[in-house]
Amino acid sequence: MNKHLFLSVALTSISGNMAQSYAQDKYVSDRSDKRPNIILFMVDDMGWQDTSLPFWTERTKYNEVYETPNMERLAQRGMMFTQAYACSISSATRCSLITGANNARHRVTNWTLEKDKTTDMKSETVQLPDWNYNGVSQVSGTANTFVGKSFVEILKQSGYHTIHCGKAHWGAIDTPGENPTHWGFEVNIAGHAGGGIATYLSERNYGHNADGTPFSLQAVPGLEQYWGSGTFATEALTLEAIKALDKAKEYNQPFFLYMAHYAIHIPIDKDMRFYPKYLAKGMTEKEAAYASLIEGMDKSLGDLMDWLDKNDETNNTIVIFMSDNGGLASEPHWRDGTIHTQNYPLNSGKGSLYEGGIREPMIVSWPNVVQPNTKCDKYLMIEDFYPTILEMAQVKNYKKAKNLDGKSFLPMLKGTGDTSKGRAIVWNFPNIWGNKGPGINLNCAIRKDEWKLVYYYETGKKELFNIYQDIGEKQDLSVSYPKVVKRLSKELGSYLRKVGGQRPSFKSTGRPCPWPDEDFTLQ
Amino acid sequence: MNKHLFLSVALTSISGNMAQSYAQDKYVSDRSDKRPNIILFMVDDMGWQDTSLPFWTERTKYNEVYETPNMERLAQRGMMFTQAYACSISSATRCSLITGANNARHRVTNWTLEKDKTTDMKSETVQLPDWNYNGVSQVSGTANTFVGKSFVEILKQSGYHTIHCGKAHWGAIDTPGENPTHWGFEVNIAGHAGGGIATYLSERNYGHNADGTPFSLQAVPGLEQYWGSGTFATEALTLEAIKALDKAKEYNQPFFLYMAHYAIHIPIDKDMRFYPKYLAKGMTEKEAAYASLIEGMDKSLGDLMDWLDKNDETNNTIVIFMSDNGGLASEPHWRDGTIHTQNYPLNSGKGSLYEGGIREPMIVSWPNVVQPNTKCDKYLMIEDFYPTILEMAQVKNYKKAKNLDGKSFLPMLKGTGDTSKGRAIVWNFPNIWGNKGPGINLNCAIRKDEWKLVYYYETGKKELFNIYQDIGEKQDLSVSYPKVVKRLSKELGSYLRKVGGQRPSFKSTGRPCPWPDEDFTLQ
Questions:
Q1: Sign of the alpha-carbon dihedral angle for A50, A51, A56, A58
Q2: I want to staple B308 with a disulfide (CB 3.0 to 4.6 A). Which of A426, B136, B314, B468 is the partner?
C-alpha cells in the first residue's frame, strides 16, 4: 500500500490531484491505469476557413464572420496544424481513420450507404471500377469490403473505455461495418451506416415519423428521448456524450471518446440558439444557418472542455480536433455566394482533390506534452491518426497490423521531429461524385514537399502546383517543371499499383485508363 | 474461385445447402466462415423440474403440470444432461460462465447490484468476508472486482457476431462489468447491471414511469418501443433477438446469441397468453402465473428454433439450454405449497447447496455431431461452458487464459469420453442470502463421483450424501463414512485455499471460521 501511495503521489505532480481519493474510503479505488484520456472531436464537412481561428497566414473574411471561441480556446492550449489532410469524401476519410490504410488501398473511394449498391453517377465514356461500396469491416464475408483492424478495438483491448458519439459511416446498411460496436466501441450513441442526418430538428424526430418509423435512410437512431424536445441534434449528442463521460469516470478506466458530429453536413438547418445573431450581422438566411451550425458544433467542443475542467481531467486528456473533408462549396441550394469559393483562399471544396476539398482545420491539445499556443506547418494525413493515437495510449506492437499506411506524427506534436520530410501522400478518386467542380471526379493526386500533382484518368491531364507559393492552386506549373511532373507521376503510379489502387476504364475500348506514369497517347 | 466453389460444395454435405448463393449474384457472398452458430439459451431461476421434460428417472407431478413443448422438441434433436450444475445464486453462476473461473476463485459468491455495497444479510455471530460485490470485469481499476477474460470477447475476436439479449448481471451499477458491450458483445438488448426485472408488464413500461424515469433499479432498459403495447417482456426480448438474428444473417458471419431471459425470476407476473389455461387446470393463481412464465419462456425457445428452420440454419447451429440456479422455493409470497419442496425430488431451491439449488435442466442440440434424443448422466459445472463453447467455435489457444477452471465437456457431447471422471466440483457460499432454508447460507460443498459433502462454516457441521442413491439428500451418511468425509474435506479445503476462496470469521474472537479440513473444536 505504501508503494502504491508513493507512486500515486509521485504521479500527482504530473497528472493532477488523483491521489486524493486513496484516503477517502477503501472502496473508492484510484485510477490505476494512468494513461491519458483521448477525445477525437471530428466535424463533418467542415472547411478550413469555417472558423474564427485563422489557419492561414492571413485572417480571411470567413474568420471574421464565423464564431468559434472554443476552437480558439483549444488552440491556446495546444498546437494547430495548418496542413492536415483528409480525403475529399466522408467514407474514404473515416475508413482510413479506423483502419490506418490509405484510401487507394482500402478502395472505399466514394461514399457508402446501401449494401451492394454504388453511389456513383454514371458516365457515358468511362466504366468505374468495382470499388468497395460496402465499406470496411473487421471481418471478412461481405463482398466489396476492405477488411482491417480497428485502432479502437486495440485501444479497448488495452484497457480503454471506448465511446462512439455521432456519425459512424464505415459500412453500408446491413454489413458488419455499419455498427460502431463492431469496431471496438463499447458505447454507441446515434451511430449507424448513414453518412448524414435527415434533419437536426427534434421537431422532426431527427428523421422519424410520429409513429417512430424512419422517413429517411439518414434518420439518426438512439436519440428518441429528445424527440419533440426542441433540442438541436448537435446539443443532444453533446448531452449524451457527457452522460457517457460521467459513466467513464465511474469506471476508473482511461477513456477514448470519438465525438463525431453530424454537423456541419447538410441539411443546413437553423440552430436557433445562434441563427438570429448571424442574421443580424447581415448574412443571408443560408449563410446565417451555416454559421449557426458551426457555432453549435463549437459550443459542443466547449461543453466537453468544461466537463474536463470540472472533473479535473483536463491535464490528463488529449483533445484532437479534425474535420473529415473540405467544406461544401458546390451546391447553390445550400450555400450562397459564388460556388467553389467558400473555402478561400483554397480552391474548390468537398469532393475535390484541390486543397479546398482535403485540407482540414486541426488542433491537438495535450497538457505537459504539446506546447500550448503553437502551430505546426508540416503536413500529415488522416491515416496517420491510427498509429498516433495508439502511441498516445502507449500501445506497443500495433505496427504488426497489416496494411497500416499511416505514420505517427507524435514527433511533430512533441517537437522532436518532422515526419512529413520526404513523405508522399496519395489520394485516389476513380469515381464520379454527385457534384461537379474544380478538381472533382475521376482523378488522383500526390503531395510531396512543396509540390502537388493532380492527374485526371479520363483525359490524361496533369496539373502541378507549388502549394507553398500558390495555396489557391491557380497556376498550373506542369509545363515549366516537366521533371517534377515525371518524378511525381512515377511515384504516384507506383504507389497506386503497389497498394492495389483502382482506376476507371474506357467504355469504347474496355481498356483501363492509363496510370499517371503510363503514356496516355497510346490509348 | 474454383477452389472456393469446391470447398463450398464439399462442406455443403455437412452443413446444408449453403453453396447455392454462390451462383445467384456476384454481390451476394456466401458465408466464408463455416463455423457453427451458437445459441446459449439461459433461463433465470428455473428449477430442474419446471418443465414437462423429465430430467429424473421418473416423471414428477411438475412434469405433468408444466408445458414446455419446445424443450421437448429440442431434447429430441439433442442431448439432455441430467446432472448439469450451476451455482446457487445468479451472479455467481453468470460470473463463472463469462470468465471460466470457479465461484470460489472469482469471489462473486452472492448477488451484486449497487457499487461498493454488499447485498448480504447481517449476522450477530459471524463477520462475512470482503467478497467481490462489484462483480467481474475485463479491466482492473475497480475495488472488489474479479478481473477475467470473457469467452465472448474471444469469440468476437475470432470472427463471431456476438449478441446479448436479456439479463447480464456481471457487474454492479457504474462498474465496467455492468454493460454486455464491455464483455465482447456487439449487440446489447436490454442487458444491464440488474439481476432481475422490475415487471414483465409493458403496461408498467418494464419498470419505468410514464415520464420515462425508472421506478426501480431493476427497470429494464432498451425495450422502450414495447412500452404500453401489451407485450410481455419475454416476448419483447424474443422479437428483438429475432431482429438481431436477421441482421446477423446479413453479416455473413457465424453468430453467438446469448439469449438470457429474465424469466422465470420474480416478480411472477401473469403471462396472459398462457395464464388462463393453467388456472383452468385447477392451479392456484400463484402457481398458474409461475407456469405461464415458464411456457412464455418455452415459446421463445420455439420461436428461435423456428427462425433457424426458416432460415436454413438449423443444421449449422448449436443450441444450448441452461438455467442459472435452482427454482425459487423459499418465498411463500411468490409460491404456493410447502416451501422448499418445489424442486422435488430435489431438496430445497435457489440459494441452497443442496441439489434443488444447483442442479439445472440442460439440453444441447448440435446436428450431425450430438446424437439426437440422447441423455447424459455425467456431471458438469457452469464454468465448463467457457472452454466448451470456444472449442465448439474451433478457437484454439484459449487455454492460455489465466484462472480458467472450467473443463470442456465436448467429449461427452460427442460420446468420446467422460470428463466428470475423477472430477471434483466445488461451491463456496460464505455469505448470507435473504432467505433461509435447507442448505442455504454460510457453507461450501464438493461433489465427486457419487458423493457430495456440505460443510457449514459457522457450526462446523458436515453432511455427506450419496447422490446416486439419495437424490433428495435426506440421509446424511457422514457418521457411516468417516474416511470419505475426511478425504472430501481435505480436497475441498485444499481447493478453496488454492484458488483463494473466502470464509467468514467469528465476531467473538475475530478469528476465521476453520476450513473444512481444519479442526473445528480448536476454535
A1: positive
A2: B314
B74 φ/ψ angles, rounded to the nearest 5 degrees: -65, -40
Strands A255-260 and A37-43: parallel
- Are B33 and A186 inside 8 Å of each other by CB? no
B46 exposed, middle or buried (CB, 10 Å; 0-12, 13-18, 19+)?
buried
- The yes/no answer on whether domain A39-119+130-159+260-420 falls in CATH 3.40.720.10 is yes
Query: Residue B40 and residue B61: Cα distance in Å, rounded?
Result: 28
**Per-residue b or e along B98-135, where b marks 16 or more CB atoms closer than 10 Å to that residue's CB:** bbbbbbbbbbbbbbbbebbebbbeeeeebebbebbbbb
Pairs across A and B, CB distance < 8 A:
91
Closest-CA residue of chain A to B26? A143
Mutation pick from B118, B130, B179, B252 vs chain A, by most beta carbons of A within 10 Å, is: B252
Hey, what's the cell of B426?
466445488
Residue B494 CA to residue B25 CA, distance in Å, equals 62
Taking the CA of residue B244 and the nearest CA in chain A, the distance in Å comes to: 11
Q: Is B144 in CB contact (< 8 Å) with chain A?
A: yes
Q: Are B291 and B67 in contact (CB under 8 A)?
A: yes
Instruction: Tell me which chain B residues have a C-beta less than 8 angstroms from the C-beta of A212.
Output: 225
Q: How many CB atoms lie within 10 A of CB B330?
A: 23
Residue A48 near residue A324, CB atoms below 8 Å: no
A181/B186 Cβ within 8 A? yes
DSSP, residue by residue, B312-340: T-GGGEEEEEEESSPPP-S-TTT--SSTT
**Average pLDDT of chain A?**
93
Angle between helices A69-77 and A285-310 (to 10 degrees): 40
| Contact state of B253 with A141 under an 8 Å Cβ cutoff | yes
- Look up cell 496516355; give the residue: A520
Q: Are B91 and B108 in contact (CB under 8 A)?
A: yes
* Whole-angstrom distance, CA of residue B461 vs CA of residue B355: 18
* Residue A283, phi then psi, degrees to nearest 5: -75, 155
3-state secondary structure of A446: strand
- List for chain A the helix, strand, coil content (%; round to 5): 30, 15, 50
Burial code (b: 16+ CB inside 10 Å, e: under 16) for B447-468 equals: bbbebbbbbbbbeeebbbbbbe
Q: Which residue type occupies A398?
A: Y
Write out A92-139 in H/E/C secondary structure.
HHHHHHHHCCCHHHHCCCCCCCCCCCCCCCCCCCEECCCCCCCEEECC
Rounded mean pLDDT for each run of 10 residues along chain B, 523 residues in total = 30 29 33 93 98 98 98 98 98 98 98 97 97 97 96 96 98 98 98 97 97 96 96 98 97 97 98 98 97 98 98 98 97 94 97 98 98 98 98 88 92 97 97 96 98 98 98 98 98 98 97 96 72
Beta strands in B382-513 (DSSP E): 424-429, 443-448, 451-456, 462-466, 505-506
Inter-chain contact A140–B32, Cβ cutoff 8 Å? yes
Contact B325, B350 (CB under 8 A): yes
The answer for A 153-182 residues in CB contact with B (under 8 A) is 159, 161, 174-176, 179, 181-182
* Pairing status of strand B146-147 against strand B136-137: parallel
- Architecture of domain B442-522 in this structure: 2-Layer Sandwich (3.30)
Q: Are B157 and B180 in contact (CB under 8 A)?
A: no
ipTM of the complex: 0.88
Residue spans of the domains in chain A: they are: 39-119+130-159+260-420, 442-522
Cis peptide before B254 (omega within 30 of 0): no
